[in-house]
Prior knowledge:
Layout: E1 7-10, H1 14-25, E2 30-33, E3 45-46, H2 48-55, E4 73-74, H3 85-93
Parallel strand pairs: 1-2
Antiparallel strand pairs: 3-4
Amino acid sequence: MDEEYDCIICGTGITESILAGCLSQAKKKVLIMDKNGFYGGEGASLNLTKMWGMFRKGQEVPKEYGHNRNWNIDLIPKFIMADGTLVRMLIKTGVSAYLEW
């Protein structure tokens, strides 16, 4: 196919995604390409299979780790303020039971 684009963006990190959004709002035709099989660049959160594939190519995830839906692993560690609004929200909703602190 012969496609023409106003802009080609390499990567799907936060900066690239914001830029693509702004350009598309300006009625530009944008193509976003990424070498990874997931969105988010260095700021992505991956399931267990994707993470295992990055660091243990060709090996299967051991069964004792459970299902993919049990895992959401950030490529960049995040800091959560100990007494912040986010912590209070996580505790109130019960989501904190699924996090490793």
